[in-house]
């Protein structure tokens, strides 16, 4: 079973999640690799695909959206899981990481178009030293620092449990040949 874990990551947090998922899949006996969507791999070369993107202002990164749209036909015929990395913490109007308000805008269209087996939102990380000029400038504003706290908020136990559920699904549900 060959699985590719694809990611679109601006500052490395989402890439770290993708690499962690691929490693957990390998530990469960799945041949898995993590690669950027920019590498433009052919999903048809794999038995299953996991795709994740950093989320900014409620949207997946353009590169990830374009990858899904460009490969819609191939992705529709195979097991696919999606993940989003973005919130750094829960706000007063959001009670849990599973709150539908955290779902990026593109996900509902992806659910309809490619029928993924699941979508999960994970907390991200913010290292001010890795930020680009625009985000560094934005974080100088007190209000921005309040809503963009510094730190690593990724819940590795939650991510590991999700990766293990994917490995279990792949082991118990045979994949139809392409």
Give an overview in words.
This protein is α/β, with parallel strands linked by helices. It has a single domain (2-172), classed as Rossmann fold, CATH 3.40.50. It is built from seven helices and eight strands. The strands form two sheets. Strands 1, 2, 3, 4, 5 and 6 form a six-stranded mixed beta sheet that branches. A two-stranded antiparallel ribbon has the order 7-8. Strand 1, helix 1 and strand 2 form a beta-alpha-beta unit. Helix 1 packs across helix 7 (156-172). The longest helix has 17 residues, at 156-172.
CA gyration radius, whole angstroms: 16 Å
Secondary-structure-based class equals alpha/beta
The number of helices is 7
Average of the residue pLDDT scores: 84
- The CATH architecture is 3-Layer(aba) Sandwich
Helicity, as a percent range = 25-40%
Count of β-strands: 8
H and E order:
EHEEEHHEHEEHHEH
Number of discrete domains: 1
Q: For the terminal residues, how far apart are their CA atoms?
A: 12 Å
CATH-level-4 superfamily name: Flavodoxin domain
Biggest sheet architecture:
6 strands, mixed
Described by the principal axes of the CA atoms, the overall outline is globular
Query: Which fold name is given in CATH as the topology?
Result: Rossmann fold
CATH class: Alpha Beta
Low-confidence stretches: none
Kindly estimate the percentage of residues that lie in beta strands according to DSSP.
Answer: 15-25%
Domain Flavodoxin-like: 3-167
Pfam families: Flavodoxin_5
GO molecular function: electron transfer activity; FMN binding; menaquinone-dependent protoporphyrinogen oxidase activity
Protein name: Protoporphyrinogen oxidase
């Amino acid at each position: 079973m060959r699985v590719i874990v694809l990611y679109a990551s601006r500052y490395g947090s989402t890439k770290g999640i993708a690499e962690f998922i691929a490693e957990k899949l390998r530990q469960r006996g799945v041949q898995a690799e993590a690669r950027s969507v920019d590498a433009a791999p052919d999903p048809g070369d794999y038995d299953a695909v996991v795709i994740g993107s950093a989320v900014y202002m409620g949207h997946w990164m353009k590169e990830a959206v374009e990858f899904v749209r460009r490969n819609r036909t191939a992705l529709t015929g195979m097991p696919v899981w999606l993940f989003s990395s973005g919130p750094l913490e829960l706000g007063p109007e959001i009670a849990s990481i599973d709150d539908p308000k955290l779902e990026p805008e593109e996900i509902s269209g992806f659910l309809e178009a490619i029928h993924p087996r699941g979508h999960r939102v994970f907390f991200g990380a913010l290292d001010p030293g890795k930020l680009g000029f625009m985000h560094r400038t934005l974080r100088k504003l007190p209000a921005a620092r309040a809503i963009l706290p510094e730190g690593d908020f990724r819940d590795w136990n939650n991510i590991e449990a999700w990766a293990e559920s994917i490995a279990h699904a792949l082991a118990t549900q045979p994949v139809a040949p392409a």
